[in-house]
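Entry for the shared binder. Reason: the reviewer on the internal report wants the predicted structure included alongside the sequence.
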Amino acid sequence: MIGKIITGSSFRGLVNYLLDPSKTPEIISTNLAGTDRNMMIWELNACAEQRPTTKKPVKHISIGFAPGDRSLDPETIDEIAQAVINNLGYGDNQYLVVKHDRYDPKHDRIHSHDHFHILINMVNHEGKRVHDSYDKKKLEKILRAQEQEHNLTLVPSSDQRDYKAATTGQVQRIIREIEECKGRKSTKSPTAPYTLKIQSGIDLASHDCPSLTVFLARLQQLKIDPKLRIESGKVKGISYKLQNFKIKGCKLHQCSFPQLIQNRVTYDPERDLVAINQANQNEEIALAPEFNVSWSQTSLRNYVPNKVQQMLDETYGKQELQVDKKIKKPEPNGHLTGLGFPQTPCPLQNQKGDEGFEIDF
């Protein structure tokens, strides 16, 4: 199972989303007295108003099962939902558990897995706000335990993965563009976001746990520009830039500075100081030939689900998915071209004048 947590301020917006008739909603369980959405919203707001200083009392937890898991009955879903609610500390809070159909008009496709949603009022019945520090980490542990208890597919937690996979939205967009190519609705090649490109470059640059100096030099070699934030003589953070796109290390998998030196690189402040200053001043860091890396050494297959890989194989052939060495300029839509899968023409397009298949970064 994969879980996602979002906090917000509007109970009305979330209740309307969960009970949208187009999603074929099924209320699995709730402790709300109201039976229609307006009464539910009134109850939730009335409870939250006991603590007006809490500006975002809405907690939305969405949980998706693995594609290989069976279609689960409402009782099993409720058992999992109750485990999540109670183990996160919301046993005395209002909640609503809703299952949606695999067909979701908002995403314009049929999900390959069952999924359900939990609405929680973060202000409990006594008017106290439940502390939600580390809820995401706690949720991962809860889901791993529930997978074992209900004999479901075991999914690695974030700290157990070697890389960060593409998000649901990113995967859906890639699939949609493949389907448009197959249906002759578009000759545009599938695109992928900058974040996956930068993530794959960081994974490659740190694959052998090098020194921070070598790591920074390799990123420069891959045209990724690292910048380290220094406070009181100590490194406090790191960001990465590819073309015009910049992202903080904490937004990627094990790429914040504390995570880097804990899991990816060796760090000696005295040894690595020169390289840090060179990176921050846009100076090239010397790199011995034996430490060189190139985009041809990494594959994007690690960053998309098996289902997407199969669709790519069926549409574009079973070729190894590699990243081209040459980085092109950004397009107006905010993506980079020429940095993805091999340029094999879509078999359903006219060969003359058509672009080859590629995933843009």
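Summary line for the report: The radius of gyration is 23 Å.
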